[in-house]
Amino acid sequence: MTAPLLSVRGLCKSFPGVRALAEVDLEVRPGEVHALMGENGAGKSTLARLIAGLARPDAGTILLDGEPLHLRSPHDALRRGIAMIHQELLPFGEMTVAENVFMGSEPARLGGLWLDRRTMESRARALLERLGSDVSPRRRMGELSVAAMQTVEIARALVRRCRLIIMDEPTSALSLREAEALLGLIGELKAQGTAVLYVSHKLEEVFRIADRATVLRDGRHVATAAMGELTPGGLISLMVGREVEVPPAVERWSKGEVLLSLRNLTRKGEFQDVSLEVRAGEIVALAGLMGAGRTEVLSAVYGLRPAERGEIRVRGRAVAIRRPRQALAAGIAMVGEDRKRSGLVMSMSVKHNLTLIDLRRCCAGPLVRSGVENRLADRQIERFGIRTPSRDRCVRVLSGGNQQKVVLAKAMLTEPDVLLLDEPTRGIDVAAKAEMYELIRSLARSGKAILLASSELPEVLALSDRVVVMRQGRVTGELETHLASQEDVMRRAVLAEENA
Length: 500
Hints:
The chain is of the alpha/beta class. The chain folds into 2 domains: 6-240, 3-Layer(aba) Sandwich (Rossmann fold), CATH 3.40.50.300; 258-499, P-loop containing nucleotide triphosphate hydrolases (Rossmann fold, 3-Layer(aba) Sandwich).
């Protein structure tokens, strides 16, 4: 048997009030794809951060090639050949894509006095193309979508040619084409002897690329096994300690009046002549590859980036939406694709995050009535099953699934007629995803009109009544979900309408 490249023995880590890891063991071999599995809060990201030098363990040992590894920073880890691709993106927004890719390892001329920008841009472009992305290396990072930023983060780790690459939910924001390119690249890295520690909630990816899996639960090591010894159901049971039912395909219930109608909605360079309707009690999904315009359409309906022409109607009445306040007044709420950037104030409590969207209900003049605010927060916590020790607990310490519930509960505080959901289960585990599906379906059953965008085709087909497929900013087809397959959706996503 090949000697391990990385060994973790008895690793422990605690934070105030939380024991994140308790005597965890792990081994990763050269040229191995090793999946690290568990629910949100199981300790996966904490373990990855310790290995990458982002934090120090309280006890235990990390060994590289059998020698103790003492990391004081991520730069120490990089020098030893360990890189990490983070789930939570860390871009330098005002710098270019190429500058982000080569940050800390820039090619230079004249003895290091002059940056070789031509080489940086050329190599960055080549790396991005290998990842299936056509993003220009000269664009500013702050202008990119979350999916494009994720691709750049991956390129930044790959450029250093490390011996061990930790990938924390690397495909969570990627389109199917980009995810396929990354999985193919992981195969190349494996053939070259590079080890990959792969953290993901997407079981189909794990069973496709991983050699072995280690499961953590509540900060403890539960099992390590070869993938051939595991089944999806068995792996889920190890992760959550109980049987979890995967939600069935979309349920059928009666639909009401048209609550949201878009007519020829257009924003130059992003989407053109988008028309669709969503009825009360209906879930309509926008599907397509990255750059198809899904997020952009939702942002326009909510007033984040208003459409330049076209019409939005709510309950048959035309509404002018130039900013989110007008959308809320019209009965439209939105859950964005990045909860930590646009959905939550991470330093605030669960209560304050929940009530922030409609704080006037809690106020008497300039004063906040704490009793009213507490009752509103408690109602939403109970209604959406948010697991938190207290309404006053900082939202930062909640698991990803519970943070996402807070974002959804906040959006629903205004009791909107129309709910926009952009990647509603991004970065949450299997059990939390099942809960989120049921919450979304229950909102539809209560009469809400839901328009969602998702890059996960199984999710699209499991949740929606109809799928509106987009390609390069245009609608290329509309499908009844119960008559559609993933292949039907992808065909319309990659081919022009007349060829679909």
